[in-house]
Every structure is written in structure tokens, then in C-alpha cells.
Known about the structure:
The chain is an alpha+beta fold. The strands form 2 sheets. The protein has a 6-stranded antiparallel β-sheet, with helices on one face. Strands 3-8-5-6 form a 4-stranded antiparallel β-sheet, covered by helices on one side. Strand 5 and strand 6 form a beta hairpin. The longest helix is centred in the last third of the chain and has 18 residues. The two termini are 32 Å apart.
Amino acid sequence: MSGFGHEGRHGRGSGASVEAGGAVLVGSIDLEHGSGYHLHRHDTHQLAWASRGVLAMGVETRTYVLPPARALWIPAGIDHEVLVDGPTRFVSLYFEVASCPLAFGAPTVVDSSGLLGELMNYLTRPLDEDARARAEQVVFDLVEPLATVDLALPRPADDRVAAIADGLAQNPSDARTLEQWGMAVGASARTLTRAIKHETGLSFGEWRTRIRVAASLPLLARSMPVSWVAGEVGYATASSFVAAFKRVLGTTPGRYFG
């Protein structure tokens, strides 16, 4: 079973420990700013969680930003990478496929804000065989999927829309209207409206909001003030940013990051 034994993105971190159980291998490690693990996969299912700090998990075409209130289920055989943007305690549970009663076929965000997080911490401790076996069985009852919004929209195939996407990614606070973008990329606002809808399924305003909210996540993960983050991603006030964040993700930044 593969886990924390492979080399990290910038070294191994510190304080690594692994506890073996009958059905579950539990790993925990302290990672520093900019460290993590390059693209890899496991032959087991994985439940990845930050008990302290924030994880950024790159899985397929998506990047999941995971505060302690959220963990990520990664099915066996799925390529993924790990990056942290500050001191983080990275905890993972690894489940043998043949004996795992859970059958999520795709990466799934789960709620770790309550007992599940406490139990994952508990499993990192040295436990006798019976206590560990009892705790492992409870884990399966506590893994509850959370509804999520895919902020990592695929790169547009239309060169004009892709140019706008690149511009907003580099500067999410760019306030140009669609007419102004049209002048920059050589298309009318009407043409761009149709192209963006075709590429993303969203209006220009909805699309830009998702880009801005996605850009805010790593900033919020570093505990930057909401008022400062709001300005960085294009909002005049903290309240307008919080409203947009809640509109996209269904909760406020404070609750999202727990």
C-alpha cells in the first residue's frame, strides 16, 4: 500500500507517522509552506484531510481547497497531487478496495467538521487492536458527501474565450465589461456572450464570479482578511464579496474554512 513513503514535492515534511490497522492504514505528517506530493496514485482508496492548515488537492481537472471542515475521498487508481500553502497537518486514511464498504466512484468531498475529524485524529494515535477495529468501523458510518460546485471549469476551446479566461486568471479583479473584452479579443459582445454560454454553460457574469471565488480560496486559506481578499479578486466591499461567495458555494468564507 503506497502512502507517505514517497518523496514529496519539496521534501518529506516532518513528524511523519503511520498507524496500521486491520482494514485501514492511517498516515499523518506535518508539511510546511510550499511542500506536498507530486502527481501519484494509490492502489487503495484514500480519505485525505488537514487536521490543521489547508490542503490543496489537484485531482484530474479539479483543484480542491480543503480546510479542516472538509476531507476528500479519492478512489483507488486516481492520479492526484498535494500542495500546502502554510504549515499543515496532513492526515490520510487508506482503505483496501476489496474490504471497503464505501463505493464512491469519483473524488468526493465529505464533511469532516464533526465526529469524523475527531475520529481521524483518534486513529493517528497508538491504539490496541480491538480499539482500532471498532473505530475503523465507525468511520464508514460517518463519511457523508457534501454538495460542491466545480470551480475548475475546463479551459475554453474558443481562443477568444480562452484569452478572457487567461486574463481573469492573472487578474481576477479586472473589471472590463464584455464589450471592452470584445475590443481586446476581436469579437462583439453578442458573439462572446454566445461563446461563453456554449463553453461554460454560464453567463459572463456568473463565469467571472466563479473565477473570482476560485481565486479567493488560496488567499482565504492563508487567513488573509476577507476585506483584503475582496479587493484582490475584484469586489469593492467585503459584503459584496461574501454575498458572491455564498451565491457560488452556498456558505460564507468563515463557515467554509471552519
